[in-house]
Amino acid sequence: NAGVMQNPRHLVRRRGQEARLRCSPMKGHSHVYWYRQLPEEGLKFMVYLQKENIIDESGMPKERFSAEFPKEGPSILRIQQVVRGDSAAYFCASSPEWDGEQYFGPGTRLTVT
Amino acid sequence: AQSVTQPDIHITVSEGASLELRCNYSYGATPYLFWYVQSPGQGLQLLLKYFSGDTLVQGIKGFEAEFKRSQSSFNLRKPSVHWSDAAEYFCAVAGNNNDMRFGAGTRLTVKP
Question: Using one digit for the tens of pLDDT, what is the confidence trace for A13-31?
Answer without folding.
Answer: 999 999 999 999 999 898 9
